[in-house]
Amino acid sequence: MSTAKLILDGKEHEFPVIVGTEQETAIDITTLRQRTGAITLDPGYANTGSCVSSITFIDGETGILRYRGIPIEDLCASAKFPEVCYLLIYGHLPNSEEGAEWRRQLTLNSFLHQSMINFFDHFPVTAHPMAILSAMVATLSAFYPDVMDDKKIDLSIVRLLAKAKTFAAYSFKKSIGEPAVYPRTDHSYAANFLRMMFATPAEFYEVSPVLENALNMLLIVHADHEQNCSTSTVRMVGSSLSNLYSSISAAISALWGPLHGGANEAVINMLQAIHRDGGNYRKYVDMAKKKDSGFRLMGFGHRVYKNYDPRATILKREVDLVLGALGVTDPLVDIAKNLEDIALKDDFFVERKLYPNVDFYSGILYRAMGIPMEMFTAMFALGRLPGWIAHWKEMREDPATRIHRPRQVYVGPNKTAFTPLEKRERSAYQPKFTKE
Ligand code: ACO
Predict the structure, then answer these.
(1) What digits encode the pLDDT tens for the residues 32-76?
(2) 104-122: per-residue pLDDT in tens?
(3) What is the C-alpha to C-alpha distance for residues 210 and 190, in angstroms, rounded to an integer?
(4) Domains 71-259+383-397 and 263-368 share a fold
(5) Residue among 221, 227, 228, 259 whose CB has most ligand 1 atoms within 8 A, to mutate
(6) 3-state secondary structure at position 124
(7) Lower CB density within 10 Å: C or N end of the chain?
(8) pTM recorded for the entire structure
(9) Residue 306: CB within 6 Å of ligand 1?
(10) Is the CB of 35 under 6 A from ligand 1?
């Protein structure tokens, strides 16, 4: 085994080097503080491995993404989302018997307890689907306290996967004031979701195979992405032995932010703003290059990919297929492609290796499929669920897991005396509590 040497205050310390199956190299500093008194400082954890994992491999320099060793391109071409869930969670593809039982469980468990459906009547119509989704997933622990029972973990997992899509579809129905549509046992996971979203009591609804295939693929490309912000949240929360549902509810909240899963919504907002502005995309590229503008090209850049995000390549191709098959034209598609062309040739983006990420084209696809913008991040969450679950399970089964508790370098005031109220001065910043 090779080792790494660290010299601190003239004293040499040796640390083991761990090499992964794809030759990723890490210096194991587990004993660093104990031996040297020092810690590492790595804001945003860009150089920190928080665990060893056998779920997903990413090579950001060459644009590779594999689930349990299988390339994302192959899974998108041939697999169905439920079998990808099984692959991520249980480590192998299901055989025909396992797959049939898995699909049966996913359908059976997609129905909601009536008192759970009542919750939907009490959210305001203005509620964002992500607020509803994270609240309802947390609520699962109230309805199913057996989530604490390790012997029932498989049941807890399938319940979550099955019910989350019902929650997401119901949150949409709620927002448009339509009655909820119950799941059906004779539909696939993707078809069931589309039916629950778009069927109405007024007319017959048949799921379009184009939409079913597109949704299946969208769910697969989002299914896992190793230690991203929301997945690390699952591991962080779950490391305190919090139950599966509360850990995943926290991940949904982490995903909501515009720098993470919320970027798909932000991309469409940006493309619409450019469209309203006469389609002047060059102006927005210039603005993104000016740091003080506070504007970034949404859907561009990634912490890990320093090459084209392979998921964006798949989705870009699918945009053309789906729009063509549905006969949809969308002016935002041309703006997106022009924006991409110009940014990929611009020194600012080239030097920083900023390429379109998965969110750049996913929003356009969702739009073409008739999925409203407020639902985009919830769609991402449905796709990411199996990844979150797989990481939660892997962490719980790993004897090396300890409660996640990073340290910090304190830079605040040294010991300071308490000032009595009458001697305190008015501070420079006054909090603003008014609404305007
Ligand atoms: N537009 C313009 N400039 C950018 C962009 C962008 N989208 N992204 C990064 N940069 C610039 C930064 O200003 C910085 O420039 P500097 O080196 O001159 O200071 C440099 O590129 C590096 O950027 P960081 O913010 O340090 O990169 P980081 O790895 O921390 O952030 C992130 C990655 C959050 C994805 C970032 O690229 C971003 O904000 N992108 C837009 C939001 C987005 O699309 N998020 C979705 C990510 S994919 C996902 O979560 C599924």
Answers:
(1) 999 999 999 999 999 999 999 999 999 999 999 999 999 999 999
(2) 999 999 999 989 998 988 9
(3) 11
(4) no
(5) 259
(6) coil
(7) C
(8) 0.93
(9) no
(10) no
- For the chain, the C-alpha Rg in angstroms (whole number) is 24
Distance from Cα 145 to the centre of ligand 1, integer Å: 40
pLDDT digits (tens, 9 = 90+) for 162-191: 999 999 999 999 888 888 899 888 899 999
Average pLDDT over residues 358-375: 91
Yes or no: say if 391 and 231 are a contact pair by the CB < 8 Å rule.
yes
Q: Decide: helix, strand or coil at residue 161.
A: helix
* Count of positions (residues) in the chain: 436
Instruction: Quickly list DSSP for 44-90.
Output: GGTT------SSEEEETTTTEEEETTEEHHHHHHH--HHHHHHHHHH
- Which structure tokens are listed for 105? 């469980």
As a whole number of angstroms, the distance between CA 196 and CA 170 comes to 7
Which CATH number is associated with domain 71-259+383-397? 1.10.580.10
Q: How far apart are CA 258 and CA 273, in angstroms?
A: 16
Looking at CATH, the fold of the domain delimited by 263-368 is given as Cytochrome p450-Terp; domain 2 (1.10.230)
**Strand, helix or coil for residue 227:** coil
Crossing angle (nearest 10°) for helices 189-198 and 81-90: 120
Q: How many helices (H) and strands (E) does the chain have?
A: 18, 6
Q: Which residues is 267 bridged to in the sheet?
A: none
Q: Please give the Cα distance from 161 to 392 (Å, whole number).
A: 14
Q: Is 334 a catalytic residue?
A: no
Cα 121 to Cα 140: distance, rounded to the nearest angstrom: 17
Domain boundaries, the chain: 71-259+383-397, 263-368
Q: Which two tokens stand for residue 2?
A: 């090779």
Taking a C-beta distance cutoff of 8 angstroms, is the pair 369, 328 a contact? no
